[in-house]
Amino acid sequence: MSRLSRRDFLRYSGATGAAAFIATTVAACSGGPASTGSVGAGSDTDLITAVIGYGNDGSWDPTQTASAFAMAANNHIYEGLLETDPITREPYPALATALPSDVNATRWTFTLRQGATWHDGKPVTADDVVFTFQRILDPEANVLTGSFFRPFLEEVKKVDDRTVELVFKFPFPDAAPRLSIAKIMPKHVFSQPGAWDAAKGGKAVGSGPYRQTAHNPKSNTTFEAYAGYNGPRPATAKKMNWLTIVDASARVAKISGASAEAQIADNVPYANIEQLRQQGLTVEGGKGMNHMFLMFNTATKPFDDVRVRQALHYAIDKRKMIEVALKGHGSASSSFLNEQHPDHRRAATVYDHDPAKAKALLAEAGVKDLSINLMSVNVSWIVDCLPTIAASWEAIGVKTTLEPQETTAVFTKMDQSQDYQVVAAASNPNQFGMDADLILHYNYVPGGVWMKYTKWAESDDAKKLFALMDQATRELDQAKRRELIHSYLDVIAEQAVLYPVVHTELMTAWDPKKLSGIRAQAYPGISLLQARRA
């Protein structure tokens, strides 16, 4: 696989995160001022005003983005052949008319929905599907979504104007929910010169229930119901206005009080949950892969020594972090996967708080008088966790300097090959899907941006890990596949190159007197496809 350009990655993630990313993938959380472009809620019952706690200045290109804001918005604007329910993640037909009849087959045929049109009125055709997948599978383009499809998908062929065939390299039953990542894009729009740059900048033309009407990257994005939509989940509101507010206090203010401008907000600060509930708002959470991770530069000593990386994980008082910073809405990581994940198993190496073991590992590695500059993203809950890390490391004799900053600044420095020691950031691969193969290949893939940052991909340990992961991808027997997954999760835990410290619960708040049909997600963003103004 060709190496991913971090310049492009930064433009499409716009954040972390992911999330993450890079909350996003990291959860994709870049900063921006409180909205100045709001159209307001007022008494307009045709309008849903939402507050998104992540930046809106990342890429909107569906083949590239990991921005929490853009991905959530694109789920309302675009469609895949199949889509998944935002909570259950069960697939359902979207642009396609039916689910695959045999998920173990190596050829899947889909018929496109009769009468489906783009937001400019032109019909959706098989050419659009082939065009989209050609970009996704192109090793030279090396778009982010490609890492989720190239391992198993050989090509996508046009059968006729309304029929396409997906040809697999080997049976891959998990492809059905994964197809929701591949948002089909109009060839007549995005094959034009400069169109991909326009997509990154916010140009969006889909076939979904809402069309974009305005995009102000540091402020807000507006939508209206698309009258020509004839798919399974039509728009339930005539208009939407999504505000981007990264600052926690400003975000809470938008949904607080009798004159609250917004009816819903995601990424609700833990410290404000009871306050909002007392005001009559519903505040619910979702537990998933949202996590804070530490990422080490293994090209910089002493972080090339696994004992040092392990020592720094053992030193962290995660219980204190959960109680103080997360207000109980988190759990110490016992695996790369969160405990609610169906493939979770406690890893062979678990970093319970053990300062004595941390000191012993540093001594064994011959490390004395270690000083660390911990660079981090400025996502509010991550910043809240930093003092616990610093205090924990100081307790084992490691001098620690904290350096939180805007997410884009963090990753620009690494993209420019500036030296760094350790980075703390947020991520949530559940933005893309739930299966373990997808989650781990998001972070651990040769040529991937995360492995580029860690400088670890060319090591013998990394090559053995990648081979084990590929073996699991191809394994059809579910029991054997799970054992392989557990085996490589143990390797990832032991190596601790990029590894979660805590998994957290994401909180969403809404006014039940003004909005119904809301379900809290375990990953950044919101889904309003079934929401209604009261």
Automatic annotation (TrEMBL):
Which parts of the sequence belong to the Solute-binding protein family domain?
90-439
Taxonomically, the superkingdom here is Bacteria
Q: Where is the signal peptide?
A: none
Q: Which Gene3D superfamilies match?
A: Dipeptide-binding Protein, Domain 1, Dipeptide-binding Protein, Domain 3, Periplasmic binding protein-like II
Name of the protein:
ABC transporter substrate-binding protein
Organism of provenance: Nonomuraea recticatena
